[in-house]
Write a structure and sequence with these properties.
3 helices; 5 strands; alpha+beta; Trna Endonuclease, Chain: A, domain 1
Amino acid sequence: MIDKFSKRQKSELLGRLAEYFAIIFMFFKGYRLLQYRYKCPYGEIDLIFKHGNIVVFCEVKYRSDAEQLFFSLGDRQKQRIKKAANFWMGQKKIVDYNARFDFIGLTFANKPAHIIAAF
């Protein structure tokens, strides 16, 4: 059935599945989901979690090759995520929490790679 989709549609579907898997993965690590796929004028944040007194802005990437995962997040994208995070914190009027940027890389063949404070 998935063969009927275009390459872009398959990538979108795999990306969404990776995000859902990441939510479950983080839930079992004690993280509480605050927002899914946040969009603002500055960019998009895949997942926003709360862990203790830390707000965790999380980028999720799926790649078929594990070696590609760590090169899939560029400097420009990191800057957009940081600007979007500042915008989100301002909207929510959050001042008493620390913020952190994590990365979750998935291949579906290996255990998820959760990099804490990735950037």
